[in-house]
Amino acid sequence: MTDVQKVRTDVDNETFWRQVGLDIERHDELMSVLPPVFQSVFLSQQNRPEKIAYYDSFIQDLHGKRPKEVFERKNNGDKVIGAFCAFFPEEFVHAAGAVPLILCGGAEFPIADAEKILPRNTCPLIKSSFGFKISNLCPYFQSADLLVGETTCGGKKKMYELLGEYVPTYVLHLPHKKNDDISRNLWVEEVKKFKGIVEDLTGRKITDEKLRAAIDLANRKRLALARVYNTRKADPVPISGKDVLLVMQLALFDDAERFVKKTNELAEELEARVKRGEGVAPKGAPRVLISGTPMTIPNWKVHDTIEKSGAVVVTEESCTGTRYFTDLVDTKDASSSDDLILRMAEKYLHINCACFTPNEERIEDVVRLAREYNADGVVYYVLQFCHEFNTEYAKIERALRTEGIPVIKIETDYSDSDRGQLKTRIETFVEMLKASKARGAASLAEEGGIKASVSGS
Ligand code: BJ8
């Protein structure tokens, strides 16, 4: 980058946004919606952990401080690589001293622009992501030197072709059958190739030493998130599902080292709360697992509706949840660069995206997580027009019903038009969970009474 192209970051936000080419008027309109929503969804909650303040302040200056940091890195010669999926091998990006960002759109605002090019009956995540770029509404998007897509669902694949007309875009070839050797080898080769692409873009060699350090960093991020999630197994739950969703969403934007530090601090506070029996919802409140498509900023409506109905979200089987952090890259005994890449490729192939066939591991995972987190019910969340996750529901529903775990499917988009309907359906579901918990408690008490009278007679 030449001096002429440098973006000044020691300026007010509006000056910064002008420099990076945002459509200021529309951007103002977009950002004006955020504070009241954030107030109603997050700040109105009672008894939040203190350490959540870091994530609040990140959101409150979402398009200011962090994008400026990213442009500062660009000014210093580092590249920025944006992606849209949990399959993005961020380790290579860290190892090359570049900045990884996940750029999935979670807002309704740019969708009308996207629909001038993309079919209306496309998943909102795809339309919103594309819309943010073509409408110049996102400073993170403006920073990207390369975008990385992947061959997961059909809608994304075709959108990436169009996105490539605006920003250089590389599409990772992800096979759709994970349990055969041909697919596995293809993916290993693709991951290897991607390493070369990052090296070419950055002009920096990814040595084994740098790659090991980057793997360690990404693993520490996953472990910090797992630590937070682990505290949610307690009853009462020490943190709301909304707050954890916020943490997850920022894992995709923040500086990785800082994020690890802040998230471990949060986990420490939550662990202390669990020891004291302190929670954000009353002990015994219905516990909900959300399973399905990812939720990116500012897509908070399902968590918000569930928690305002008197239940608490205790985990998310999602790429903005457990699918993002569950597996680590195991570098033990890896003796060569090829070995490290193989371990990385294997870790990523364990992500149970509905684009795979068959995908039995995901079905088993949902049941396992429901048990582990002691969930009373599952909300299966599908973004409209996502055929992969929508179709997979049939098998998940069957597995959950066999286990006696109630489930409801919510298919929605980013608009607020179905808020009322959503609220009614979720409230009914939560009432049903409450009633079934009350019945369970009554029959336990009755059983206890019988046992006491038998032993007393
Ligand atoms: S690994 S879940 S992040 S693809 S919701 S765009 S699948 S039509 S987001 Fe995903 Fe990677 Fe899979 Fe995870 Fe398509 Fe479905 Fe939309 Fe989706």
Provide a descriptive summary of the structure in words.
The protein is an alpha/beta fold. Helix 18 links the parallel strand 7 and strand 8. Helix 10 packs across helix 16 and helix 17 crosses helix 18. 55% of the residues lie in helices and 9% in strands. The model has no long low-confidence stretch (mean pLDDT 96). Bound molecules: Double cubane cluster (BJ8).
Order of helices and strands: HHHHEHEHHHEHEHHHHEHEHHHEHEH
Shape: globular
Low-confidence stretches: none
Q: What is the beta-strand fraction?
A: 5-15%
Separate helix tally: 19
What is the helix content? 40-55%
Oligomer: single chain
Give the biggest beta sheet: 4 strands, parallel
Lateral arrangement of strands in the main beta sheet: 2-1-3-4
What binds here, in terms of ligands, is:
Double cubane cluster
What value does the Rg take, in angstroms? 23 Å
Distance between the first and last residues' Cα: 87 Å
Mean pLDDT over the full residue set: 96
Structural class: alpha/beta
Total number of β-strand segments? Answer: 8
